[in-house]
Write a structure and sequence with these properties.
The radius of gyration is 48 Å and the shape is globular. A three-stranded antiparallel sheet has the order 1-3-2, covered by helices on one side. It is built from eight helices and three strands. It is mainly alpha-helical. The N and C termini lie far apart (about 145 Å).
């Protein structure tokens, strides 16, 4: 082997030795780094870390307004704004078309007491309502009104024709609604019987008299 060849070989050997030592140092450093890592990092496969952010409530920048229920005319009247029954009747709005039951109640007021003062009309409506809530009578306004031999205006199981354009009918509808809704206390609040003061039926002697309003006397 020539001198030049030996020199190159020596250089190659030295370089290889240097690389081996460098690789060994790197391997030692890597092992130390692994030992320094938490055990969980070693057990788990390498994954990209994902930050979990707890869900926060979302606030709406616009104001949320809860709509209020519409207030009817008679709702206001029940807040002690009506100082008399007449005033309350004037405040109450009545639908053009009544339900069957309310029509029967208003019809009883119209035919039995349209010539009476308003408190007398209210008392008649209260009698119909009280009877419908009493087991001795039918359980509806129409059942009470059309019960045989109870109301003289009913003929052949039918109600006579009503003048629906009259003020008397408008008042009767208002009084019926007031009584139905319990918006005004009647003098005959517990009554289930009444008759005109110009007659004296036999049953009246066995009943408790509650009030006389104009020409009608009311009992329970």
């Amino acid at each position: 082997m020539g001198h030049k060849t030996y020199s190159l070989s020596a250089v190659a050997v030295a370089a290889a030795a240097s690389l081996s030592f460098s690789s060994a140092d790197s391997a030692v450093a890597s092992a130390q780094d692994v030992q320094a890592m938490p055990q969980t990092d070693i057990a788990q496969p390498a994954q990209e870390a994902v930050e979990i952010v707890p869900q926060q409530p979302v606030f709406v920048s616009e104001e949320v307004v809860q709509p209020l229920e519409e207030t009817s005319a008679y709702d206001n009247a029940t807040d002690n704004q009506a100082t008399s029954l007449r005033e309350l009747v004037g405040k109450v709005e009545t639908a053009d078309k009544l339900s069957e039951q309310m029509h029967c109640l208003a019809g009883a007021v119209y035919f039995e007491s349209r010539g009476e003062p308003l408190d007398g009309q209210l008392a008649v409506a209260q009698v119909v309502i009280n009877r419908s809530e009493d087991r001795r009578w039918p359980a509806s306004y129409c059942g009470v009104v059309y019960q045989r031999a109870q109301f003289s205006f009913v003929r052949g199981g039918r109600m006579p024709q009503i003048n629906k354009s009259s003020d008397a009918w408008k008042r009767a509808k208002a009084v019926a609604k007031i009584a139905h809704e319990g918006m005004w206390q009647s003098e005959a609040s517990d009554a289930v019987y009444f008759h005109a003061n110009y007659v004296r039926p036999g049953w009246s002697r066995r009943k408790t008299r509650l009030a006389q309003i104009d020409t009608h006397i009311f009992y329970r």
